[in-house]
Design a protein that fits this description.
Length: 75
């Protein structure tokens, strides 16, 4: 398993009155395409953006994003 960042953005958008990707993008100052790429785990957000998204949902960072690493890379 490679290092990766996963997220629960889609879940939290749904729980936030079915917030659209565009609404979230506007709130954090990025494009809708950026939110799509993050949700599909094709793009890892900057730490600042990850905190902004978590703040929008009033959730701790680790509730919205998770980091998974391969144990073969640890020395």
């Amino acid at each position: 398993m490679a290092n990766s960042i996963t997220n629960n953005i889609r879940y939290f958008r749904f729980m936030q009155n079915e917030m659209t990707q565009k609404e979230l993008a506007d709130l954090v100052g990025v494009s809708r395409q950026t939110i799509i790429a993050i949700e599909k785990e094709k793009y890892a957000p900057s730490l600042e953006l990850a905190f902004q998204i978590s703040h929008i949902f009033n959730q701790p960072l680790e509730s919205v994003f998770s980091y998974h690493h391969s144990s073969t890379n640890v020395k």
